[in-house]
Design goal:
two-stranded antiparallel sheet, mainly alpha, rod-shaped, Outer membrane efflux proteins (OEP), about 75% helix, about 10% strand
């Protein structure tokens, strides 16, 4: 409900509903009374004005048009809600995939760290050469860069989810929302 586009759609539906109610009310004859005023040869007269409106064909045309307008507004609102739901679902799914990718990258980094430590130990014991140590160091740095890349994708997915929700998921904005309530 914090989305402005949904609020606009709800407002358009409410306006269409109000127009339908006015059209239905105008299907019956209406009498209006109001104050009047005119000047007659130097004398101010304040008569009571009476108005009478007689709708033709019980105002069926206007009522049908208002019903159609309300139906269109309802369809637009439902389509927008479905679109919003789809955006949120897709963003949640993308965030879940990105989170699993980060967890996998963290496991690869831990394995690369262990491999580098074992290779360093093997080099110190004389069982491996400097090439092997360099290869393990390169593997560790690749794993670290992969983790940074996956965390960036996770943040992008979280940003997309915030955009779909039109509400912050974390950060100082949450404190601002709490202060405004």
């Amino acid at each position: 409900m914090s989305r402005a586009d949904l609020g606009i759609a709800i407002g358009e539906y409410a306006a269409a509903e109000a127009r339908l109610q006015r059209a239905v009310a105008r299907q019956y004859p209406q009498i209006t009374l109001g104050p009047g005023y005119y000047w007659d040869h130097g004398i101010a007269k304040f008569p009571l004005d009476v108005g009478f409106t007689l709708p033709l064909n019980r105002n069926r045309g206007e009522i049908a048009a208002a019903r159609a307008e309300r139906r269109v507004a309802a369809k637009r609102m439902l389509a927008l809600q479905a679109d919003i739901y789809g955006q949120i679902t897709a963003a949640e799914h993308a965030e879940g995939i990105a989170r699993a990718s980060v967890e996998s990258a963290e496991r690869r980094l831990a394995a690369a760290r262990r491999q580098a430590e074992q290779t360093n130990l093997a080099v110190r014991l004389g069982e491996a050469g400097a090439e092997r140590r360099l290869g393990a160091a390169i593997g560790f740095e690749r794993a670290r860069l992969g983790l940074v890349h996956r965390r960036t994708r996770l943040q992008d997915a979280r940003d997309a989810l915030e955009d779909a929700l039109h509400a912050p998921l974390s950060g100082p904005e949450l404190a601002l929302l709490g202060a405004g309530s």
